[in-house]
């Protein structure tokens, strides 16, 4: 039984696809696509040298182009803080005395209940405070 070259290339593509699934390394997928391109080249009747060249060119091109794009997406970069996370680190103005038991501040144009991070500390109306955390509907300040 004589197996055509394109079948061997497809077997190779499947063989390269298995480690892709097991290890989640995208490079194996790029080599697998290169092997499929080699199979197409073989099916069109080209010789061994053009098949190998197509495999190498397609694989290297995918690694050179797709891998940096995937790395950028994986890194993600700095995300924008939203919701209460966006309020952490901001400054607020004390409206009513704030101590370990509570008080009121004006934060981002809204009135918030607040308490100090250090229970023994207190802030008087008009003082600037830094928001270090949001605990439910209460800003924790210092």
* Mean pLDDT across residues: 91
Strand order of the largest sheet: 1-2-3-5-4
User: Looking at the structure, what is the overall shape?
Assistant: rod-shaped
Beta-strand percent range: 15-25%
Total count of strands: 5
Radius of gyration: 31 Å
Structural class: alpha+beta
Unreliable spans are: none
Number of helices: 3
Q: What is the helix content?
A: 40-55%
Ends distance: 81 Å
Query: How do the helices and strands follow one another from N- to C-terminus?
Result: HHHEEEEE
Oligomer: single chain
What can be said about the biggest beta sheet?
A: 5 strands, mixed, barrel
List keywords for this structure.
single chain, 142 residues, alpha+beta, five-stranded mixed β-barrel, 5 strands
